[in-house]
Amino acid sequence: MRPKDFISISDFDRDFLDDLITTAAKYKSGKFDNKPLKNKDIALLFFNPSLRTRISFELAIKQLGGSPSTIGVGGQTWNLEWRSGIPMDSDRAEHVIDAVRVLERYYQALCIRAFPELQDIKVDASEPILSAFAKHSKNPIINMESCISHPCQALADIMTVREVAGKTNKVKVALFWTYHPRRLPLAVTLSFLSAAVKFGCDLTVCAPEEYFIPSEICSETKKVKFVSNPSDLDKDTQIIYAKSWSSPKLYSQADQDLSGRQRYKDRIVNSNLLKIAQQAKIMHCMPFRRNVEITDEVADSDSNLMYQQAENRLYVQKAVLNKFVS
Amino acid sequence: MRPKDFISISDFDRDFLDDLITTAAKYKSGKFDNKPLKNKDIALLFFNPSLRTRISFELAIKQLGGSPSTIGVGGQTWNLEWRSGIPMDSDRAEHVIDAVRVLERYYQALCIRAFPELQDIKVDASEPILSAFAKHSKNPIINMESCISHPCQALADIMTVREVAGKTNKVKVALFWTYHPRRLPLAVTLSFLSAAVKFGCDLTVCAPEEYFIPSEICSETKKVKFVSNPSDLDKDTQIIYAKSWSSPKLYSQADQDLSGRQRYKDRIVNSNLLKIAQQAKIMHCMPFRRNVEITDEVADSDSNLMYQQAENRLYVQKAVLNKFVS
Amino acid sequence: MRPKDFISISDFDRDFLDDLITTAAKYKSGKFDNKPLKNKDIALLFFNPSLRTRISFELAIKQLGGSPSTIGVGGQTWNLEWRSGIPMDSDRAEHVIDAVRVLERYYQALCIRAFPELQDIKVDASEPILSAFAKHSKNPIINMESCISHPCQALADIMTVREVAGKTNKVKVALFWTYHPRRLPLAVTLSFLSAAVKFGCDLTVCAPEEYFIPSEICSETKKVKFVSNPSDLDKDTQIIYAKSWSSPKLYSQADQDLSGRQRYKDRIVNSNLLKIAQQAKIMHCMPFRRNVEITDEVADSDSNLMYQQAENRLYVQKAVLNKFVS
């Protein structure tokens, strides 16, 4: 029995996720070429911009025989309200409840992207938009990145680790906070962290202390080592996952997060960092800012795995759609 | 002989429209599964946002074997001018005449959405954009909601009435004006009113007097009863069609319409209204504002037919495309 | 051996281009109906708006058996950076290098539209965006209009000349600068000029002197006659190609270009101009401004070839895709 929705890594055990990655690898190898979405229509609902996620979902759906409809909320369509019980007198002309009840009569599944507001960590952790869709839809809801969760990315990431290291158990991975001029969501960070722990990686988070992940928002952090200085990275680190994220500690204080991080502009993946961990390969979920998060030199070297991660998104999404929609 | 275009309910007699609804019902039942749009390309041109209309047209076209192209005017493409004979020195870079002459070489039909300006009722009633397209296009023009007309919605509405009441003749329907924070077009109101009268419904319009529909803009109003108080609704009303619209009387006085309606905030479909008409089912074209137009309680009850209406859009559009394009 | 990319008319000799037009004519006649793009996915990347180019590319790809993905850069997706070696701290969240490396794993070809900044003619002439894509992509890059080049338009234009005149050699063509309230790119102008010279047309450019095309930005101008007054047009001119463009001389002085051109508001294709060249047919790449660039009278007459040009875009793009992608 599988759950109706694919929303968060933490909803599934390792075997279930492993099975998805194995299916993804079969799609990648060309050994598996089924059409489970034949005569099926799938809606892709974007509350926020996307490149990789959108095109990899569109192609995955088409290549599985289905037909995708990409819908930009608030652009060519109405803004959607998701709060319950309030009088709808804002600029949001339609409620998620009602959009769902219409969309589920037209489509066999809904894939949703809805970023956090980054104001109140409890609100964001409750996944207000995704959970409204999941609650009201009889059909599967697939997460294309929500407030605190990006499960398709995490599966593509673990698939990449497995391709590169031949396994995931005991692989030494550092999740490395980089400077970034904007406050980014925690979704990729938390989903990768959860998945890496589930898959037995030996995970270190390297970040300034105010960017450490508290166990209240991610229980797997108990199995993670935290270090605050790049120089504390193990020299036999196999993979450095570069990523910026908002400070959980300063979540409601955007200005302090942004001014405080100015002193961390040296948190960049460059050749100096690779002197500490000389064998490390570099991962990133993309998009990334050259010479801010990662230098040109490192990004253009053979140690960069991010294009492989991006390609794996296509196969992972096929595996997820095959499992949850067919 | 059918006309070239499908623009307004008032262009067709009951038999013609009845035939379209019968075809729609066949599509819905699955008894009819033809591919009249095979190798046909259809353009969907949106001057304004859309959810239901866009996705139901896209799916209808695909399921009939054709290929839809959704084009957002002024977004990813140029703004279009529709006034004749003027020097084009505004921000509208292309004329409808010329867009049509190109589009008709690529596509077998054009579906258009173009809302009114809500400034001059005579201008809006002349359908400046739709009639420019219809005049210059050799191919069929299908109305996806224009200034004063939304014929596909009206057909889906009548189809829903027939499904629920088993007939349309003598069915007691109230078109109920609700409060809304914005001035909405008259298109759904007028098309439903025309269609309900044509199909023999016993129609009452319940609205504050300045929202009554004058016969100059809709001749079928002569067969309609107007009441100004919700308490005047017949207690055996079978269907309450909730809808807000701009005041025809204050059409050029937006501020007075908006300030004047503040005293009508109690015009909402709630359990009190359903004490007057206890058996009434609720219709709405969607999107609707919860707890402004209709309460959660009523919207989430079994008396709400709006999702059925929205689903019927798909079948009605198949019937229209099958008739006008194939 | 063909080059990898289709970026500029000046990269190809007449035989190569002639062959493309001949293939386009076969597609138009219906004699040729292959599916070279079967199971192929093609991305259409738009940095700027489009109508004809977008829909003709989409339809061409579909009709050749492929599947197009239309992506509006900076709208539903991230803004892209194309400058090399800089720290990416602007609002451009992703670099072209990285977008290409992802897109080439999903798509078999990229078609790009990227207009000029119209500030520095040397920057624009270096085609910063297109050349970044071409440099980094292993797959074909097709130009859908760049800073100074619009090769698909030029091929459709030459195809139209050939259809109308039965040949291209010695056909008397005037490229006629019209007044326009905005500064337009030089892409159509330069590509048509290059193509017309290559195909042996007897080409005259008629424009105020500050709008003459210097040989530094287009070497074919040496074979072109320049006249500054409409009255200097040959009376046996067979084709007047109406087009506005920015002043190359005032390229970095936008205000002076715009104020200076106010005295040229009479540069419009009207019946007076057609008294000078009585047999001339009118071409334009569209969109055009009625009664600013061309009068209604001329646009609505039989001498107007622009809809034929627009239709030919479909066949030319099929020929280009068939050659470069299959």
Features:
homotrimer, 326 residues, alpha/beta, Rossmann fold, 2 domains, five-stranded parallel beta sheet, four-stranded parallel beta sheet, 11 strands, 36% helix, 14% strand, globular
Mean pLDDT reading of chain A: 95
Number of helices of chain A: 11
Ends distance of chain A: 14 Å
Corresponding CATH architecture of the largest domain in chain A? 3-Layer(aba) Sandwich
Largest sheet of chain A: 5 strands, parallel
**Tally of individual domains of chain A:** 2
CATH class of the largest domain in chain A: Alpha Beta
Low-confidence stretches of chain A: none
Helix content range of chain A: 25-40%
Oligomer: homotrimer
| Silhouette of chain A | globular
The name CATH uses for the topology of the largest domain in chain A is Rossmann fold
C-alpha Rg of chain A (nearest Å): 20 Å
Largest interface: A-B, 27 and 30 residues
What percentage of amino acids of chain A are in beta strands? 5-15%
The CATH H-level superfamily of the largest domain in chain A is Aspartate/ornithine carbamoyltransferase
Give an overview of the whole structure.
The structure is a homotrimer of 326-residue chains. The first copy, chain A, has two domains: 155 residues, 3-Layer(aba) Sandwich (Rossmann fold); 159 residues, Rossmann fold (3-Layer(aba) Sandwich), CATH 3.40.50. The first copy, chain A, is of the alpha/beta class and 326 residues long. In chain A, the strands form three sheets. Chain A has a five-stranded parallel sheet with strand order 9-8-7-10-11, with helices on one face. A four-stranded parallel sheet of chain A has the order 2-1-5-6, with helices on both faces. The first copy, chain A, has a two-stranded parallel ribbon with strand order 3-4. Chain A contains eleven helices and eleven strands. The mean pLDDT of chain A is 95. The radius of gyration of chain A is 20 Å and the shape is globular. In chain A, helix 1 crosses helix 6 and helix 3 packs across helix 5. The first copy, chain A, is 36% helix and 14% strand.
